Amino acid sequence: MKIATNESGLITQILTGEVWPPLSDRHSFRVGPDGQPFVLPGMGGVTLGVHCGDPATGYASDHLEPGASIRHRDPAANMALQFLTCVGNEVRVETGPAAGAAGHVIGQHAYVLTDFPEATAAQLTTGDQVTVTARGQGLALDDHGAIVVKNTDPGLLRAMPGGTRPDGRLEVHVAARVPAEAIGAGAGMVSEYANTDLMGAYAGLGEDLSLGLESLRVGDLVALEDSDHRYGRGYREGYITIGVISTGQCMLFGHGPGPSSLLSGPAEAFHLVDDRDANLASWYHHTEAQGAA
Amino acid sequence: MTSTGLASTVAASTGPSSTGEQPLRPVAVNLLGHVEHPVIDGGPYRVSADGKPYLPVGDGGIVLGLSLGDSAFVPCADHAASGACLVHPDPAARHALTAYSCIGNPVTVRTGHAAGATGAVIGKRGEDGRVITAFRPGDLARMRPGDQVAVRSCGQGHRPDGLPDGLTLLNADPGLLALLPSVTWPPAGGGPLAAGVRCAAPSKLSGNGLGRPSAAWCLDLSLAPPAHGGADVRLGDLVAVTDLDARFNMGFRRGWVTVGVVVHTDSPLPGHGPGITPILTGPASTLDVRSEPAGHTGLTAAALKLQ
After folding, report:
1. What ipTM does this complex have?
2. Mean pLDDT on A53-82
């Protein structure tokens, strides 16, 4: 993205975490849109076989978190890890058979979600220690004062197509536009933690549940209509939030593939370009992430 | 085992019977709540939707000077519920207290200066769980955080005769519908249930509460205040949300409608606003919702005999 920012003034913090297990309780089952009970994997641990560019839905899964799901063992340190880590940050494995391998953050979901090459992910498991190079919070755009940047590694911003247009608006490429009706769990939460679940993408379920979002892919850049994520996540007519789909398939009702928040501001400050290739996999594969970090 | 109250409760909470089945009898379970003390996590400030820091006032505990029928848009208040919020020190018991308590359930103060006073459940709130209770003003003024309050919970799983097929009643004492002047109960002639509401909001105005269980969490709505053209929503009002299914978790379903009771005031936080505890949800064909921007009467202290 051709754009002037305060990147040269940003600082970097080195954080640690570990691959955190999936969590359940003795009742196991949760409830789907039609009251169907389910037990489905996908959240926590290391979820294999799904990466940026792959379909977000169509799996026997709930709250699918691609790759490794990372937390810090200390609750307060964990909140720092969740808030300070940005999409695009490098994550290095410190222990276990994959020690030395690197991946990159694709979003937050009460876990830091990290995509690794499949061969690396296959060697990871719960308890493996990682180092996160946290950089990006505080990033601001010199010429777009109405747009707030969140959770974005400056390297990711540079890799994205678009930028400042002659008319002063910010050109952003998006793979999908999301109506406000799709906003589900995550509304009302701060925009530096977890993500915004999108309803209307329950593959294989009723037409009355569909908002046409069944073709989203992991890593897609999307535009959330009438959403203001500058100071938390809420409905505001005429605002747009740009997010990256960091989680996939859900069966839990009111939940679904979720974007982590990247840019938010009034709609007139943006020039959106519909681009099916607007996906992290197009510009920011893990090998590029290592180069850019 | 089947003769115990617990087993009966489990049977009654398995949800509405399908068409033609013998209705399950509701079971009452006595619960204990503790009047909440407000909590503020860390620094005193929250950040509003416009990016301004503010100190949250009225978010939990005992709130005086606010009653059923008062405006849901109160300057300087955040999620303020009228009356006393009940919690429980054990997290699992707190969730059960919230999930089983129903609007209209009778409550009795057990300890403290107001011991013996009676009131009623008028709503619930989510995440960690809170039950909102109303008392006569003189009784509420004598209460303090930590007072113990017994809740005679009853209503979850109850499906009264006459409820239209496909419509679900939840979070409601078996006597609640008869207390609401804007609801025609019982409905005439097997048609949809007629419910007057202060306003009907589109589902896209829903915020916190989406994707959360309707038995234990309220749904915040980004409603415009009257000064900005919105309806004059008041605590205790019925408000409808279109295209929303609230049988289990709350979420978008085209062609459905949910009606809830307004239980707390507006909030400066983005994605928050006046909250409703859902009581009726079903396909739009089962619920005849009529907007009454003026002259609507919802749940009142008079109907609960708390004046």
Report:
1. 0.91
2. 96
